[in-house]
Amino acid sequence: MTSETNSNDISLPASWKVMPAVLVAVGAVCLLLSVGLCFLNTHEGNRAEGVQFFMHSYLTNYMYCLSFGLGALFFVLVQFLCRAGWSASVRRLAEIMASTLPLMAILFLPIIVMVLMTNSVSLYEWNTDKPEGLIAAKKGFLNGPFFAVRSLVYFLVFIGSAYFVYSNSRRQDESGDAKITLKIQAFSGPLIMLYALAISFASFDWVMSIDADWYSTIFGVIIFAGSMLAFFSLLAISCMLLQRNGKLVKYVTVENYHDIAKFMFGFVMFWAYVSFSQYLLYWYGDIPEETIWYQIRINTDNGWPYIAVILLFCHFVIPFLGLLSRHVRRHRTGLFFWACWLLIAHWIDLSFLILPNAGPVESMFLVGHLLGFIGMVSIFLAMLLLKSINVPLVAVRDPRVPEALSYHNIIV
Fold it and tell me: What is the pLDDT of residues 31-76, one digit of tens each?
């Protein structure tokens, strides 16, 4: 195969290169419509309620898109640390996903601005001039300036790690120096430890502290599990769409899809395990400040109990059974279906974690929330495509690529 053919096989389809502008326009329009519909959900035009509804929706959709980059970053670091060969041909796609984290830092600015403008209209109940009860006792940690500083630290860890890996990987494209792989491998262990701390505390700050009276030490792990599941689902879909457009035909095999599907299957179980573990401990303890979080999601008549049941089946039982078969995990069409299914389930999961604290919602808000989802995802995809232009979609000079092209899953 000629170098020209190889170059064409690992580049973005020409028709995709004009899509970012369209996606940004769609994203901007949808976000503006989302703002308007969230305000229509208020009682008697209450502006404060409109801001509350929109910011809860914004955070939900923001965390959804952020989860792709966070999952991709962890995947890349682990692959280098473990000297994995099977993933060398798909790892560049993960590196590109992780490189969208600077954009996500910019999209986090509206939340930072709201937190620093301490007033009665806030996403977080601790963000007030006169905190009471348990919230007052946590004021040393839960305050606007310290929240902003911690968020900056989290993004420095995420963006710094992603930049270190991606820049060195691109440098290897030019030089072919195998020592670069060893360099990234040497730093991957410490970076994973920093990543674990950052994603745990970021989950506490950005999502869990919406209800500041409640706490869960396993909450960060739940966010992590959802992020990994979302990443692997998006990775599978990306590979299949690229191959349908004549790209990566030589580089992504059924063995790669099989392994990606096994990770999806594993994180379906892991998400269910940690989510049920959290629920079981609080149900058994039955302490009011611990069970209040579940009270507004399960023991109410506002529709969230139905979402809880939907999550049980759509995020665990059904995909567990669907991905159980080896045949499905190696079948592109079947895997594509389950990847799309899990991406939808992940959005419902994040909505379940965040939206109930916004108060009773009506149909207009749900439409606005869906438009906000389309808007945020459109902007994320635009950045993902921009990052992919003029970049090889495979790290062709990585010394482990030949192993990725020749390995086979062992049947035992």
Answer: 999 998 887 766 655 677 788 889 999 999 999 999 999 999 999 9
Q: Which two tokens stand for residue 27?
A: 């994203």
Contact 64, 347 (CB under 8 A): yes
Burial class (CB in 10 A: 0-12, 13-18, 19+), 29: middle
Cβ burial of 379 (10 Å; 0-12, 13-18, 19+) is: buried
**What are the tens digits of pLDDT across the range 326-348?**
999 999 999 999 999 999 999 99
| Triad 134, 136, 142: Cα angle to 5° | 100
Mean pLDDT of 16-26: 96
Where do the domains of the chain lie?
3-131+138-404
**Cα 311 to Cα 303: distance, rounded to the nearest angstrom:** 13
Residues 75/228, Cβ–Cβ less than 8 Å: yes
Residue with the two structure tokens 């910011």: 55
Q: Higher pLDDT residue, 302 or 314?
A: 314
